[in-house]
Design brief:
With about 270 residues, the chain is of the alpha/beta class. It has 13 helices and 10 strands. The strands form 2 sheets. A 6-stranded mixed sheet has the order 6-7-8-3-9-10, sandwiched between helices. The chain has a 4-stranded antiparallel sheet with strand order 2-1-4-5, covered by helices on one side. The longest helix is centred in the middle third of the chain and has 16 residues.
Length: about 270
Amino acid sequence: MTLELKRVSAGYGGVNVIHDVDLVVRPREIVTLVGNNGAGKSTLVKAISGLTPARAGTISFEGWRIDGWRTAARMRLGIVHVPEGRQIFSGFTTAENLDLGGYLDTNPGSDGNARREEIWRLFPMLRNRSAALAGNLSGGQQQMLAIGRGLMTRPKLLMLDEPSLGLAPRVVSEIFDLIVRLREQGLAILLSEQNARLSLAIADRGYVIENGRVVLTGTGQDLLQSREVADRYLGVGVELQSQSADRSSGLAKRLRELLQFDAQSRQT
């Protein structure tokens, strides 16, 4: 088991935002957090990365209890958090941003240049903009740079907070396709995402969060077909209630097919 949370609570000031959360992310698995704005998804991700200290409960990663560790120590163990809003260094070049992402890679014999080449292969468009200031990149390119910077540390768990926020549909398709490919390469991924349909379509499992508490769990496909989830998060509740299970499965299939769109869109 890569990551395990038991009864974790965290918040800001004197108020807890998440309460008694249990969560598991296993190796080579995509786990999605579903919930409205303010539900506590970002706070939960920050509690795992150490940006917001856990006030109760335990957080374990690969057998280590880490809820008292600093963020940098968690990164060295293999946890990388790509925050909402990208938060790149806009005054630095694309290549410099990637190099900054690799500064905690202390593996013996680690070659930063070789690692950067791996990122270029994942994001060919970034190679073409390697000398450009990151602030001059498009929104989609900046999001890819933020993910690439996180990958420079060779993480075992990649946590993505709202990676599709503010991006065009074609770019969103590329980002979700990338997430699937990263899982296939061996990464465990925790995805906090407002686009519930796409995130559940690619997820192995999901957690529905309301008012800081986990209220529903299941496989990505089960949650995608759930009437309760549809009513609250997919915007198709009334229609979905009258559809058969086969029709619901078709929705998941169409969402997965959308992820194939990136291959065609890159050619246009």
